[in-house]
């Protein structure tokens, strides 16, 4: 085997036997546009090694999405270190980042980001295929049933409500079987009742053994978390259980 083949195989075969772990050490992220520098994250130290429902809370512009993008290896820090599953990915090649991300992290977005020309089933099947899972159609059917959409498999996104579309997006994330779910304002487009259902669904995934990180500006949502990481102007200003203790989704108001 020549050296390039060996490097390729190594990069596309991350060690999946290690447990899920997120480590950010002294992470800084700056964006430079013309002669303006925006510091989105400053000296962020974050360690998650538990399967838990974690809420990242902060006002608009505090760096929540930037933090999620760092954890999900969608963006690289200006300074500091990002490691997933104990592997330092800070200086890793795009190929190595893609390979690890593919088997570790799945994303859920505020605007669902479904493929409009694919049915619910095909959207979810795509998730299973990207992750290289066998029997992708079977996996997709099972995950859609898990999120309560067994009777909507042939529907296209425009034929589904916002809450149903978000369920499809969650099913697509689950179809990858990745251990970390990163959700950016997943209830932002939904009414209160639907948002609570989506939150419950995400909470169930944490109870089933996933690490679920949900970004929100809505403090009320953070009351159901196991752990709340609060950001202000790019810095973590608190990290711990919700003040007042964890409550049930049924006790939320917004
Ligand atoms: N690609 C980029 N180029 C330049 N500046 C950026 C970029 N992405 C984010 N920023 C800046 O970094 C800061 C943090 O942005 P970020 O989107 O992480 O905040 P946020 O807390 O997620 O905000 P929101 O809740 O409004 O989505 C903001 O000042 C934003 O303008």
TrEMBL record:
The keyword Transport applies. SMART domains: AAA. CDD domains: ABC_MJ0796_LolCDE_FtsE. Keywords: ATP-binding, Nucleotide-binding, Transport. SUPFAM superfamilies: P-loop containing nucleoside triphosphate hydrolases. Gene3D superfamilies: P-loop containing nucleotide triphosphate hydrolases. The keyword Secreted does not apply. GO terms for molecular function: ATP binding. InterPro entries: AAA+_ATPase (IPR003593), ABC_transporter-like_ATP-bd (IPR003439), ABC_transporter-like_CS (IPR017871), ABC_transpr_LolD-like (IPR015854), MacB-like_ATP-bd (IPR017911), P-loop_NTPase (IPR027417). It comes from the Bacteria. Residues 22-254 form the ABC transporter domain. This is ABC transporter ATP-binding protein. It comes from Kribbella ginsengisoli.
